[in-house]
Write the structure tokens for this entry.
Amino acid sequence: MAQHTGSATAQMKDRTGVLPQANYRAVRAKTVATQSVVTLILFILAFYFMLPIIWILIASTKNAKELSSTGIFSLPSRLHFFENVRLLTTYQHGVYWMWFLNSAIYAVAVAVLTCIVSSMAGYALAKYDFRGRNGIFLLVIASLMIPGTVTAIPLFIVEKAFNLVDTYAGVIFPLIASPFGVYFLRIYIQDVVPNDLLDAARVDGASAARTFWSVVFPVIRPALVTLFLISMVGTWNNFFLPLVLLNNQDLYPLPVGIESLMSLINTPEAAMTVPLYPLIITGSLISIAPMIIGFILFRKQIVTGLTQGSVKL
Amino acid sequence: MAAQMIRNRMQPWTFLAPFLLLFVAFLLVPLIYAVYISFFVRRMGVLYFVGFQNYITAIQDHQFWVSIVRVFFYGVVQGVIMIVLALLLALLLDTKWAKFKSLFRLLFLLPYAVPGVFASILWGFLYSKSMNPLLHDLKFDPLSSGFLLYAIVNIATWEWAGYNMILYIASLTGVSSELYEAAKLDGCNEWQLARFIKLPLLKPTIVMTCILSFIGSMQLFNEPFLLTALTPISPDFTPNIYIYNMAFSMTNLPYAATLSVFLALITILISVIALIVNRLWRRRTPTAGAGASAASAA
């Protein structure tokens, strides 16, 4: 620390000592110029990243006719947003809100159950010495390498045999079996939960279950928040698995539901009778909104989760 | 003296039981079943054992290899563009000139919060002449067959650049400020600081993001699948689209399983090779971390 301030004052002396006043002003002007150029570049890049989001905000206020006849950034004659929401709500007796509810059910159920199941398994692998411990951990790490899309189609066949196709459980169970969650919590528990603490709990006469719920669980709460958010976002965004596992549109989550609307664009009868474009656009906006709002609110936890999750991998 | 790990025969298995049960039923069994059924063909609803015949068919399957070559090409192009952009974002935000840092960081990362399906819908409509009249005037069709792959490159880059930027920023904030001070005292300007200090420090993270991005590219599915509503896309556009069509349009499950296993083997092979090369490479050159601590010690 002392070294740090020392070098800073040395630098300041150097600057005022060597540079004449005029030269100093030129350097300042140059800094201001560079600053503006950098900020301008950042603004242009930000515009690129915001472009589709700005567009959908505007597009959701247009009706079908305006969508196809006006430019992407031209504003509508009047706001049609609530009209579009009403179209969405009345489309097939409100199936859209069913999809919304399904997405919420899948996301919350998977997030809660992943946290419980993974923390139990992670605790066993981190703090118990038993035969088969290394073998199981290796299996968990190896399965991290298997792309999720590989097992999706065989999963469909297996679930068919168990009558799990077209059920909530059929979508939720495979997503709880999260090797990442177990890996993440095993590492975390090993680093953070002291063995002495567990010893103390045992000496006090706490059962294994009680030690886990009242001692370990509260200590690992930060990691659980991270895992909860990661699994919730991952499930809300998941498309391939529910696409393969579900036929009944009443069970669709939002991405699969909206995709089913998209595919109607190519069937002329549907495209003629249903205002597909406003439905898809408004439906997409309402699907994205919770993620974006949640992201802004929880950005600290999410960023920690992203960096911890992959840097440690 | 730290306390020992807990020794107990039954307790760990009780804690592991729920995970193991789900893991076996929904991951291992499907995986084993996929391998098992890949040795059969189905004729008139009856399965016949054929040994490696499906794998021989797959090796000779022109459509499958074309789709693999396509995602390889896509993986390289998309990976390079996205990682260069993400590095640019991270390094720009790390200079002393950047203003509103946390706001920009949030704006760049926000597309990551948009599910892939909706990112494809948003960009798909922006690419579509019926929704974006400007394209009509420019006589430019991003969804034409010649440009389609690059249109998807843009969607994926938009979705993932901010995520990679965050990983780079995280690696940079771990660096002690003394190293920067030392470099500045030695007369480093911001450009040299980025080129000779920050980039070498980021190398391990860059290698890791390259591998992750390439593996992700091999699995490309959502974006082209969604765009089929707006433009014709061949049923063998990517390996996963080919496998999906094989399973559900052609209802040839054994062959779809064969291709899945094949694709998984290729993906695992690539990640293992990449990890080994990375290990060897790191052993040959002193790691950036060691260099950093040596520099700050000096």
